[in-house]
Amino acid sequence: MTSPATRNGVIHLAERTPQLTGAEMVAALVPPPQFADATFETYRADPAYPSQQEAKDLLSVFAGAATPAKGGFFRRAKRPETKPGVYLDGGFGVGKTHLLAAVYHAMPARRKYFGSFIEYTALVGALGYQNTVDLFRGSDLLCIDEFELDDPGDTMVMTRLLAELVTSGTRLAATSNTPPNALGEGRFAAQDFLREIHAMASSFQTIRIDGTDYRHRAVDGHAAVLSEPEYEAAIADAAARGLASDDRFSDLVGHLARVHPSRYIKLIEGLSTVGIRDVEPFTDQSAALRFVAFIDRVYDAELPIRATGTSLDLAFPDEMLAGGYRKKYLRAISRLVASTLA
C-alpha cells in the first residue's frame, strides 16, 4: 500500500500543529459556512411541530426583523419578554443554529459576534478574562451556539462574562440541548454552582423548539464504513480534487489531546475531505469529548468523512451514552452519520 505521506494532496492531521492568535479567534466569530446566508425566510418550519414556526416568529421580533401585528400575523407569537437574551432549547437537527444565524444576520447591529461556546471560553484563555470583557463590552449582540457547561471553571467564566456584558447593554442569543437551569447536571456538582447557573438563566427567555433531526429524515442507519480499497479510492479521488487528510483513528485521537479545541478549526483548514482509518470504540471519556469538539468543527466546515473500522456512530460505548454527556455524544453521532454519507 502506498504511504499516504508520499501522495500529493494528502496530509496527516496528526502532523499539523496549528496556532491561533486572539485576533484570529475574534475574526472567526461569524456564522459557519453553511449558515453564512441563513435567514428567517430560508428556515423551513416543520408543520408537524408548531413550536418551530412560533420560535421563528419570536426570534424575528427579537432581531427586529418583524413586529407583532394584531390579528393574523404572529397571532400565536408573543413579544419576547423584557430580558436581554433568548435561549433556544431543542433537540438535534431542528434548526436552532439556522435560527441563531438568522438572528445574527437580521439584527441591525454595528458590533455583533457569533461563536460556539468553546470558542468564547478559548478566547478568554487566550486573551485573559478582563481583556475579553473589554473586547466585547458595548457590543450589540453575542450569539452563542451549543451552550455547554462541562466544568466549574467554564461555569464561572461564562456567567461572569455574560453578566458584565448584559450590564453594558449587550443582547444575547444562545442555543443548547439543555434548558439553562439544567446546565451542568450530571457532569459536575451542579448544586455547588446553582446560584451562578440560575443567575445566568435569568438573563434569557427560553424558547422551546420541538421536532425531529432533519439529517435523519431521509436517511436511517449507521455512519458509512468503507473497505480498505474503497477508502483508498475515496481518499485518492478527494486528493485529486483538493486536499484530503488520512489518519489512523488512534493517531488522530491522540493528537487532539495535544491541540487546544479552539485550534481544531485551523487543524482542518484547507481540507476537502477527512479520512480516518481503523475506527474503534472509545475507552476514555476525555478523548471522546475532544473528538466530539473536533467533529463539530468538521461538520461546521461541511467536510465529508470517509472511514474504515467500526462505524463512527458506534465509537461511543453504551456506558458513555448513559452518562452526563449523553446529549453531546448523540449530537456528534447525528453529525457523523450525515458527514459519512455526504
From TrEMBL:
Membrane-spanning parts: none
Gene3D superfamilies per UniProt: P-loop containing nucleotide triphosphate hydrolases (3.40.50.300)
Pfam families assigned: AFG1_ATPase
Keyword field: ATP-binding, Cell cycle, Cell division, Nucleotide-binding
Transferase listed as a keyword: no
GO BP term (any one): cell division
Domain of life where this protein originates: Bacteria
Protein name according to UniProt: Cell division protein ZapE
Protein source organism: Microbacterium salsuginis
